[in-house]
Batch of 2 targets.
Target 1
Amino acid sequence: MGLFSKEACTFCETEVGMLKRSKLASKEFICNDCKRKTNYFARMDYTSKDAAQNMMETLAQEEADFEASFDNAENRFQSAERNFKTWDLGSLRVHYRCNTRIGAFQINLDAMSRYEHIPVFYFDTLIPYRFEAENAVLEDSRRHEVTNMNANYVTVEERKDTEGNVTSCTVVIPYNNDCIREIKLQGDVRNKEEEEAFYDFAQRMNQDRINWLNHGLYDEARKNKMQMKNISDTAMAAFKAAATGGNVEEAVKQGIEMANDIEEGKVKQGFFGKLLKK
């Protein structure tokens, strides 16, 4: 009976059979057409109606912002690769690219061709999932996990036959997101070379995460240096204004504006330490 019965999609209200719908965590149904507007890797049985709606509304902008981020990437820590790099993980072909300057990456599969968007993932969420109460603030212990450079969160699981030969491998990417929790990329393997491709891909992702952390530490040190110089320059400008009858308040105001711009990443340290607006 359930196989032939129809239920209305909670988003488009189209009535569809069991083979063309999924049940959300909040007990409503979503049809396959609406599901293709969400994240391919999201599990609908983990996903509430509100979460699915949020994905539909934000995926396009996230994808566009990620594409635009390559135009602003700096050539440091091999920070960005606009073109997808392809890994043949046994019988599964995976396309991957990342921008470690902003800490984001994309994974694309042939099976995603009917989905509207290639989702964007973030390295600061690439940690083992843990349930948190709604509106809970990320605890300090989790922040330590995010910034742990010694952690290789992306791992490889092997499946062997009775003779101990590896028959398939799975790259496991943990993700601390209520709708996803982990991404699994599984493919059958026939030889050692195909098996090693899984470990190569996992190592690449782990290294990209470390590069993102290194870039963040570099940016923080550079930002601190720029703030110290701005404090010195502002004090000098205020002193000069006071000595010459100039506008001290204006000098201080400009220093505060510069400090805010530095904090927001709107200025960079140029040649010989000169502060230049981007």
Target 2
Amino acid sequence: MFSQLFFGYCALMIIVSGLLAISLRNPVHCVLMVLVLFFHMAGLYLTLNAEFLVAVQIIVYAGAILVLYLFVLFLVNLREELHLTAFVPNAWLGRIIAVGLAVGLIATIPAFTLGEKGVWTVKAIAEATHTKALGQEMYTDCLLPFEIAGLILLVALIGGLVLARRDEGGGECGASDDPEPHGDHKEVCR
């Protein structure tokens, strides 16, 4: 009974904090709502007896990823942000589209059927520990998707480095044919 109430509480808080994270005006408040969301997701993992995922959720996501979000938030000058035109011109039209999509997704729930049960029963996981079971499953049956995810992250990292690199353009600073600049024409190094 308690686990069902705790599950309901965590699910409700995830929905509420997710909605607040995308609807609040202050970006710092949005990041704090994402923090609340991450902690309640860890609570859901706790109801599934996945203590390793709880630790990973809190350390990696609520810790490292959220700090990265805050760094980006403080480095971006929000006053100079470009205001783009909305994809949907009317806010109510966007809300109607969102409700329609939600109803469509909820309508597909009865068509969902559970697949075959895996080899990891509750007893087998208790004997082997959660971390060992997760590692064996990840590095045997799910090795190819794991490697593909790593490759995608590597491509994203290289793309971020390329975009962040300054465009040198005119060569090194101070490297001109004229040994001394004349008049007011001086090269400025950045």
